[in-house]
């Protein structure tokens, strides 16, 4: 049996995490198990504010802070036997690390004898040219619909398309639920393990939004008020 510790998923900003992200990792683990790998660990790596905040500003939506996204992710997977949260990417000072750099940093921490796989969606894989692999880092694509072509010799695998209720979930739905103070809906999107009261605690205990670059300020305060008060 091949030993493996895998793999960081980054097909979007994870602004914030939802159940679909966790399901992707489990689907990827299932595909690797079927190929003969032993999957010992999976990691979710929330994106750096340097990526999330400018992207959110450009699309006119709330850029949830790294602190908030990390806390929500940790609460969502704390009972998951496979998935945990990696904070290295979100916590880096200065410029944001891109996904190849994050993968290499994790490979360095795992040491030898284990192979890392990067898990992503089909659009991200196509946009970043991952169909031919990432060298020493493997790739598992989890499509929403029809599967793409695999290249196992290059470490590229395709899991079964996402299914069930969580396949339709998105970070947009979570942000809308938070803005409307609909903590029951936010709980359903995040994880069955995260009660509505826990969502309220996460909102109360963490800065919800930051200005681009993670610096807080007027924009961050404005968005925090929007989430705290709901939309008129």
UniProtKB/TrEMBL annotation:
Region listing for Disordered, in residue ranges: 209-232
Xref: SUPFAM superfamilies: Nucleotidylyl transferase (SSF52374)
Protein known as: Cytidyltransferase-like domain-containing protein
Annotated source species: Emiliania huxleyi (Coccolithophore)
Organism phylogeny: Eukaryota, Haptista, Haptophyta, Prymnesiophyceae, Isochrysidales
């Amino acid at each position: 049996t091949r030993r493996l510790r895998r793999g960081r998923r980054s097909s979007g900003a994870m602004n914030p995490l939802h159940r679909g992200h966790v399901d992707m990792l489990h689907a990827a683990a299932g595909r690797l198990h079927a190929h003969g790998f032993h999957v010992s660990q999976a990691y979710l790596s929330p994106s750096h504010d340097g990526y999330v905040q400018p992207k959110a500003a450009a699309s006119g939506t709330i850029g949830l802070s790294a602190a908030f996204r990390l806390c929500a992710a940790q609460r969502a997977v704390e009972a998951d036997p496979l998935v945990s949260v990696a904070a290295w990417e979100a916590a880096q000072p200065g410029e944001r690390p891109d996904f190849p750099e994050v993968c290499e940093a994790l490979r360095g921490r795992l040491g030898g004898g284990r192979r890392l796989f990067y898990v992503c969606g089909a659009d991200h894989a196509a946009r970043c040219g991952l169909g031919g692999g990432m060298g020493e880092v493997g790739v598992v694509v989890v499509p929403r619909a029809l599967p793409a072509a695999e290249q196992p010799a290059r470490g590229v695998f395709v899991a079964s398309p996402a299914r069930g209720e969580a396949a339709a979930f998105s970070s947009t739905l979570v942000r809308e639920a938070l803005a409307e103070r609909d903590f029951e809906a936010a709980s359903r999107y995040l994880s069955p393990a995260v009660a509505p009261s826990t969502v309220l605690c996460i909102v109360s205990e963490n800065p919800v939004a930051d200005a681009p670059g993670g610096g807080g300020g007027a924009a961050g305060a404005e968005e925090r008020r929007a989430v705290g008060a709901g939309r008129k």
